[in-house]
């Protein structure tokens, strides 16, 4: 059995490694941060005469950079820009807006799907500025055109997705002053970057291992040698014999 005082440095090492692993030096890994699923063909909610919102959950801190979603829309309904917002969660509904913008540089492509006489499209757009978010629940808000555009043409519908156990989407007809349930999940995907440990942090963790190994080795040599008050059998004097 290893003496307790020899184990303590390794416990400190574990804590130090955890701390160093959390440090970042700008290195990132790009990828999908959240996927709410693609269109399920069951319905859609009007994002032309209302603000539509759906929740998403991040398991850790990340930087959101772009979003993708699916629609069904009538010919000419697209207003040539998309308004978006990220909102905090307020007990299962849309809370305060954390960031918002309107993006005209949008990738838009027909999917070939048709629902209720409306054509399907897939959208992709960069946020006006990347948004750093901590772990937690948030809401994505989308609207066709500017947030203040509520008139015709408005046959622009955010496609639904299969239920996933989270809160149903929300919609607002009064500029976000109040929100009601729309009874649906929606098809969207969020992409961005997740911080990675920096090379300096990893190097620091390696050096810490080497230093602590040397320290523990020195202590073990002192105990075995018997000049530190031990029993001469490798056990410290404070242990006693059994």
From TrEMBL:
The keyword Signal applies. Residues 1-29 form the signal peptide. It comes from Rugamonas rubra. Residues 220-242 are annotated as: Disordered. Keywords: Signal. InterPro entries: Ice-binding_C. This is PEP-CTERM protein-sorting domain-containing protein.
